[in-house]
Structure formats: C-alpha cells, structure tokens
C-alpha cells in the first residue's frame, strides 16, 4: 500500500462527517484571515505615530479597538477549532478500532493462529493512537499553515512584489530540506512501528507466562532477549526522532536568514522614501507569518510519516479477507439425531505438511467417542474440524448424512457444547461468565447450571457471590474454580452434542467424581467426543479411536483394544507404569 493510497483512504473516512468537515474548513479559513488581517492594523497603528509630538490619537484609538476585536474573535476561533478537530479525528479512530476488532472475529482462525497477540493488540491500540496524533497535527498545523502561506503571498504581493519575490525565491530551500528529511524519517518510523509490535509482544508474553518463566528459571534469558528487542526498538526510535527533529532547526535557520534579508532591503527602501516604517512593520510580520508555517509543516511531515506507517498496518488488518461461509442452511436441534461421519477427510495446517490423510470414521447417534494418541497425533485437529474452526481440505464431515458445509458455522456450533482444558473467563461478573453465549439466561438457570457443575458452593462463599467481578481471566480464582465456571456454561442450555477436552484436569478428585457423574447423565442420548489425556477416564467409551500421525490406527472399545496388544495396549501399560 502506497502513502498516497493510505492518505486518500483516511480522508475518505473523514468525509463521512461532512458537517464537521465544512465547519472545520470555514473556521480554519476565518482563523487564517483574522491572523493575516492583524499585521495590517499593526502597520496602520505604527504609521499614526509619526514622532513624539505628532500622534494621531483618534485614529490610533479606532485602530486599537479594531485590533482588540480581531484578537478576541481569533482567540475564540482558535479555541473552537481544536474541539472540532478532536471530535472529527477521534470519531474516525473509534470507528477504525471497531472495524479492526470486528475484522478479527471474521478472519479465518489460521490467521489468528499465525500472529502473536502482542502484534495484533499493538495495531489496535498503539498504531491507532499514533495515527490520531498525526492527523490532529495535520488539522491543527498543516491546513492552517498552508492557508496562511497562500493568503500571505497574496497580501505581500499587494504591498511590494519585489520584496515578496525575495521571500518566495528563497523559501524552496526549506521545502527541499523538509522533503529529504521526511522521506528518511518515514522509513525509520516504519521500522520503529514493526519493532514496537515485537516489543509489546515480548512484554505481554513475559507477564502472561511469569509463573512458567520462573518455574524454568528463565528470568535471565527473558531479560536478555528483552534487552535485545528493547535496544533495537530504542535504536529505530532514537534515529527516527533525531532525523525528524532536524527539520525544525534547519528550516528555522533558513527562515531567519530570509527575515534578516527582508529587513535589510526594507530598511534601504525606507531610506530611499519608497517605504514607510508602518509598511515595513506589516511586511516583516507577513514575512514571519509566511515562514513560520514552514516550520510547522515540516514538523507535521515528520509526524505524518509515523502516522501513515501506522495507518498502513491498520488497513492491512481491515483489508484481510473474511472467512468464507460455504453453507446457508440452518442445522436445527429438533431435527438433529447426532450421527457423525468422517468421509475420506484430509487436512493440513500448512499445505506442504499433511496432518490428516483419508480419515474414515462413523459415529452413531448417542455414542461416546474417546480420542487418544500421542501429542501431535491430530486429536485437537479433529475437534477443530468438527467445530468448523477449520474446513477440511478434501473429503467431507457429515452430520446425519449431510455435509456440514451445507450449514452455517453458527448453526453447527450451536449444537455442540464444549469444555476445554484451558479455561477462559471474560472481564465481568461470575454470573455473566456462566451465561456467556446465553445472555437471556435467567438467574435461576445460572444458579442451577452452577449447581450441576458443583460450582455453587464456592461461588456462594465469595463476598459478592454470583456478582463477584472477575478481571484478568479470573486471576482471583484458583485454576480449578475457573474450570468449574467453564463447565457451568455447558449446563446453562444443554446442547445436542458434546466435546470434552480433559474437562476435569484441574479439579480435585472428589469434585471430579461428582462432575463425572453429572457428565455421565448428560451424555446419555447425546453424541459425545472426549479427548483423553488420562486413559483411565475413557474406558467406558463406546468407541475409542487411537490416533497417530493423523491416522486412526486402532478402533474399538477398551476390551477389544486391549486384546489386540497394539498401540493402545502399550499406552495402557506405560500409563500404569507411570501411576506406580
């Protein structure tokens, strides 16, 4: 994406607020006209003071009153303009953030899996803040400065074209310097934004995994890695700021030289009688007004490079392709029996690294299917395919004999209740977390769900009970308590099919037995998939699928598989040995 296209996209978004844009333009023009008119009054006031005994007090009084009125109106306009600019910019930034976060819920999950959380968070927060700062400078300084230059040139031409040409002919030197530095700083700011994302990513990782880092005594290694990232980020930040900051002193030096030259030429014109002191005062004010915006514009150009680089990264997210919805039918629970068939399914996360090949499996309605196998065998991938987090590359997954791609993802997921080993709780009350996904759930339904998950007892012991506010993924609860709340979600509205990924791994033995009893009752008549890490938990399953390298290598119930003396048998022996 080019700088030009990014700028055009930003201003098209600003034009979605035409009334604010028009008001901002009108008031900006008014501010510039009032600012340019003031030096004329100053020059006229100077001309009324000829000498100590020759002062036209009547005219001087009128001119001073006009100056007071102009200054008052201009002060009000300069107070009002930033308010309009802020509202215009931050409404657009608010919309951008909403779009980016909405886009993250629409893109294929493989994109999310391939990106670090810190990088995405940095784009939504830091980059949008940087963009807002740059755009505010455009309105507060760039447009006002540009109008000031144009109007001042016209006014100087009316006063004296010769002196105007002196100013204009020397001005391009400032612009050449500004352009050179702006181009250089844009490249540095682009690198800075990239390093800032790495910086945020590492900080987030270090905080989230603080316990794990200490467990393996990796504090020193983490600090060393952070020092390297931090040094790189500081390097690009330092040079980006240094290069961009050279614009101001360089252009100020050129402008000061121009001002001195104009003063010298003006003095000669006064001596020759071609100029009055008041006219020179007015012209010097104009020369200063004309040159000052170049300093402001040069600062804006430097800041704008960083803003455009941030805008590029934001639009990269917005332009991502949405996940394609292949089906339009709705899977209704009233008509669902729960038969699941994997028909020659092949799938891979990375196209040249096949994971599942020609998988065949038939699950009858109401059966309990346990999936076992070593790490990386494809157990979780099977669940990802069932939930349509990913779609199969070849073959089909059939629900009651129909390809699940015929149905919308939402309607398929509504039929599954899933409890994962890794819990996630949102910021909010315990009641809101239990009812997550079911906002219409009544208080009675929430409490009953908690009782079914054996979570009611510890919730009632909390100071605010079900209204206890949770933050930071339930950091004020134990791991087991967080998992019980996750399990309670399953009981709010009973699904037609279940997926349990070692759902009781973090719960004490007594509570686990009670919850397993509740699961056993719930699983009756419901097709259930269990990802098993502890083989003792799945011995009563109707079907046990033994997976290895993406293939089902053994299939049957516990007794049948043990008689085969195969891979499952070896896993049971290894598990028994570990238990001893």
Strand-helix topology:
Elements: H1 3-14, H2 18-47, E1 49-51, E2 54-55, H3 57-104, H4 109-114, H5 117-124, H6 126-159, H7 161-170, H8 172-208, H9 210-215, H10 219-245, H11 247-271, H12 277-318, E3 340-347, E4 356-363, E5 368-372, H13 379-386, E6 394-399, E7 402-403, H14 409-414, E8 416-419, E9 428-429, H15 430-434, H16 443-452, H17 456-461, E10 469-470, H18 479-492, E11 497-501, H19 509-523, E12 527-531, E13 543-548, E14 551-556, H20 558-564, H21 567-579
Parallel strand pairs: 5-12, 5-13, 8-11, 11-12
Antiparallel strand pairs: 1-2, 3-4, 3-6, 6-7, 9-10, 13-14
Can you characterise this structure?
This protein has 580 residues and is an alpha/beta fold. Helices cover 64% and strands 11% of the residues. The protein has 21 helices and 14 strands. It has helices at 3-14, 18-47, 57-104, 109-114, 117-124, 126-159, 161-170, 172-208, 210-215, 219-245, 247-271, 277-318, 379-386, 409-414, 430-434, 443-452, 456-461, 479-492, 509-523, 558-564, 567-579; strands at 49-51, 54-55, 340-347, 356-363, 368-372, 394-399, 402-403, 416-419, 428-429, 469-470, 497-501, 527-531, 543-548, 551-556. A 6-stranded mixed sheet has the order 8-11-12-5-13-14, with helices on both faces. A 4-stranded antiparallel sheet has the order 4-3-6-7, with no helix packed on it. Strand 3 (340-347) and strand 4 form a beta hairpin. Helix 3 (57-104) packs parallel to helix 12, helix 8 (172-208) runs antiparallel to helix 11 and helix 11 runs antiparallel to helix 12. The radius of gyration is 35 Å and the shape is elongated.
């Amino acid at each position: 994406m080019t700088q030009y296209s990014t700028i055009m996209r930003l201003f098209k978004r600003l034009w979605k607020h035409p009334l604010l844009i028009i008001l901002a333009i009108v008031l900006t023009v008014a501010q510039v006209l009032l600012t340019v008119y003031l030096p004329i009054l100053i020059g006229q006031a100077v001309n009324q003071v000829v000498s100590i005994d020759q002062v036209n007090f009547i005219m001087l009084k009128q001119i001073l009153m006009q100056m007071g009125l102009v200054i008052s109106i201009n002060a009000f306009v300069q107070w009002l303009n930033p308010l309009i600019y802020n509202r215009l910019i931050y409404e657009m930034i608010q919309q951008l953030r909403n779009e980016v976060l909405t886009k993250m819920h629409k893109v294929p999950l493989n994109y999310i899996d391939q990106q670090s959380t810190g990088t995405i968070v940095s784009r939504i927060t830091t980059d949008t803040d940087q963009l807002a700062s740059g755009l505010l400078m455009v309105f507060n300084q760039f447009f006002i400065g540009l109008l000031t230059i144009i109007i001042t040139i016209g006014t100087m031409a009316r006063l004296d074209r010769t002196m105007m040409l002196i100013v204009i002919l020397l001005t391009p030197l400032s612009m050449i310097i500004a352009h050179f530095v702006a181009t250089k700083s844009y490249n540095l700011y682009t690198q800075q934004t990239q390093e800032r994302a790495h910086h945020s990513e590492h900080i987030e990782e270090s905080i989230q995994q603080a316990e794990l880092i200490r467990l393996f005594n990796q504090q020193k290694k983490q600090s060393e890695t952070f020092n390297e990232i931090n040094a790189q980020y500081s390097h690009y930040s330092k040079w980006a700021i240094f290069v961009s900051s050279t614009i101001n002193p360089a252009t100020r030096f050129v402008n000061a030289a121009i001002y001195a030259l104009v003063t010298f030429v003006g003095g000669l014109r006064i001596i020759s009688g071609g100029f009055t002191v008041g006219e020179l005062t007015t012209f010097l004010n104009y020369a200063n007004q004309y040159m000052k915006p170049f300093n402001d514009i040069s600062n804006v150009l430097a800041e704008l490079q960083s803003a455009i680089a941030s805008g590029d990264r934001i639009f990269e997210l917005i332009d991502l392709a949405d996940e394609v919805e292949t089906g339009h039918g709705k899977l209704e629970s009233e008509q669902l029996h729960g038969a699941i068939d994997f028909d020659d399914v092949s799938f891979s996360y990375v196209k040249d690294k096949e994971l599942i090949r020609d998988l065949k499996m038939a699950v009858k309605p109401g059966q309990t299917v346990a999936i076992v196998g070593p790490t990386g065998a494809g157990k979780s991938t099977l669940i990802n395919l069932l939930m349509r987090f990913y779609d199969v590359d070849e073959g089909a997954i059939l629900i009651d004999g129909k390809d699940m791609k015929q149905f919308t993802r939402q309607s398929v997921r509504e039929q599954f209740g899933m409890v994962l080993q890794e819990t996630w709780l949102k910021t909010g009350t315990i009641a809101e977390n239990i009812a997550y996904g079911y906002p219409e759930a009544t208080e009675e339904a929430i409490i009953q769900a908690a009782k079914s998950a054996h979570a009611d007892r510890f919730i009632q012991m909390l100071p605010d009970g079900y209204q206890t506010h949770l933050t930071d993924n339930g950091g004020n609860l134990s791991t087991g308590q967080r998992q019980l709340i996750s399990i309670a979600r399953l009981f709010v509205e009973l699904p037609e099919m279940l997926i349990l990924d070692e759902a009781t791994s973090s719960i004490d033995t007594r509570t686990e037995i009670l919850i397993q009893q509740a699961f056993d009752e719930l699983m009756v008549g419901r097709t259930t998939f269990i990802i098993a890490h502890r083989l003792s938990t799945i011995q009563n399953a109707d079907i046990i699928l033994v997976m290895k390298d993406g293939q089902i290598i053994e299939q049957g119930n516990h007794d049948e598989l043990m008689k085969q003396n195969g891979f499952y048998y070896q896993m049971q022996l290894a598990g028994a040995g570990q238990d001893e």
